[in-house]
Amino acid sequence: MSKAYKFLLIDDDLIFLRIAKFQLQKKLDVDVEVFTAANLAQIEERMEDDYDMVFIDLNMPETTGWEVIEKYKDKLKQPSCTALICSSSIDPRDKQRAEDMSDVIDKMISKPIDVDLVKTYLD
User: Residue 31: which domain range?
Assistant: First the structure.
């Protein structure tokens, strides 16, 4: 039996969360459980658990993705966790900052989530 993966999507856009969750569950050829967090309280609750992959939006009303990364960097940089910034940001400073944090962030990807790219991070 193949490994069951556990993903977390952090984003304030509820439509994006619904679509991304559906795509990850239906288009990946693995067993995956997808959790979502759309606000600060949900982020804090969800980050008590461990995940195989965490997708983090940068621009949210209650907090920024950078603040989430800073607060949970020890959890995100565990070898068992792939941390991806998933954002619509085109600011080159965001891309550079993500590259500078390569000990925590595996990659910065654009929305929508590219399922084929996600597959490359699975065992």
Answer: 4-119
CA angle, 19 then 62 then 97, to 5° = 80
Condensed to tens digits (0 to 9), the pLDDT of residues 67-121 reads 999 999 999 999 999 999 999 989 999 999 999 999 999 999 999 999 999 999 9
CATH number of the domain where residue 10 is located = 3.40.50.2300
In whole angstroms, what separates CA 52 from the centre of its chain? 10
**DSSP 3-state percent helix, strand, coil across the chain (nearest 5):** 35, 25, 40
d(C-alpha 71, C-alpha 7), whole Å = 18
Assess whether pLDDT exceeds 80 at residue 1: no
Length of the chain: 123
Sequence-ordered list of residues with C-beta below 8 angstroms from that of 94, at least 6 positions apart, any chain: 58, 85, 87, 108
Q: How many domains does the chain have?
A: 1
Q: Are 43 and 10 in contact (CB under 8 A)?
A: yes
